[in-house]
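Each lists chain and fold; for instance:
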Amino acid sequence: MKFLAPITVLFSLQQAAAFAPSMQTRQTTCLQMASDSDIKVMVNGMPGPMATAAAEACLRKGLSLSPFAMTGPDMEPMSITVVDDVTGNHANVRLIPSSANDEILSQLEKTRSKFGDDAVLAIDYNHPSAVNSNAKFYAEQKIPFVMGTTGGDRDQLMKDMESSNASAVIAPNMGKQIVALQAGLEDLAKKFPSAFGDYKLHVRESHQKTKADTSGTAKAVVDSLKVLSGDDKYTYDDIEMIRDDDESKDFGVKEEYINGHAFHTYTLTSPDGTVEFQLKHNVSGRTVYAEGTADAVKFLARKIEKGEGGKVYSMINVLEEGAME
């Protein structure tokens, strides 16, 4: 399998296994984690834009970055300075290619030795093809993690994490307003199934052309709209993906956000075409996702500190607990 760089931080199962021998003594579940200020967040995927935005948001919310992080397997090792323009907080981070197993293991042990065995928590933004193997790697190494990447085999992902007693927040979307919208639609679908019976569903979503998969948020919203419309025939393959700059502009995306946006339009049309309902959420830039990711890190750390780790949480859980700042 050929992986992409720089935003992909990829570990195969074989790579993960290579780490296991010297890490076998880790406890099955992290029972306690340091306070927010002591957590070292390993933001994997920098210097990719989403990972970098998440790192900046962590600094903005008072979290500390791990002195090292993983980058794409084909990248050269480098040191970068992450700066949050709002607060002026900054941190130096050494980026290590995911193919440099020995150095990654050495840095992980060094960081844990200095800051505490349970101080490291990962943020993972990578290519969809690496979702399952990366999650297994974190679980096997007892690294709590927040994963906002979509794609992969999601059913298998949840099964693997539940059976491994992993501590994680896994969600197709990290933006709290969109998460709240999804929760509202799920509740509506439960209360009023087939309220839009026989209505035809049409979905268009536009993202930057580097996004390889169909939006996980679109899939989640479609799940609710299918219940409301009673349409069992509509599939994720029917979602219209826009990954072309000119088409995105025609869809309403401004030039300056072509390389970072999420524009979604969901339409329900009555059988005779006389009634139409439309739901739309347009996001320009990455800030809303980055800040939600940092909130998820703080939520997960506090759950572990309370002895409530060893579970997979969603952003709905984060929102319900009022942990979105």
The chain is about 35% helix and 20% strand. Residues 2 and 299 are 34 Å apart (CA to CA).
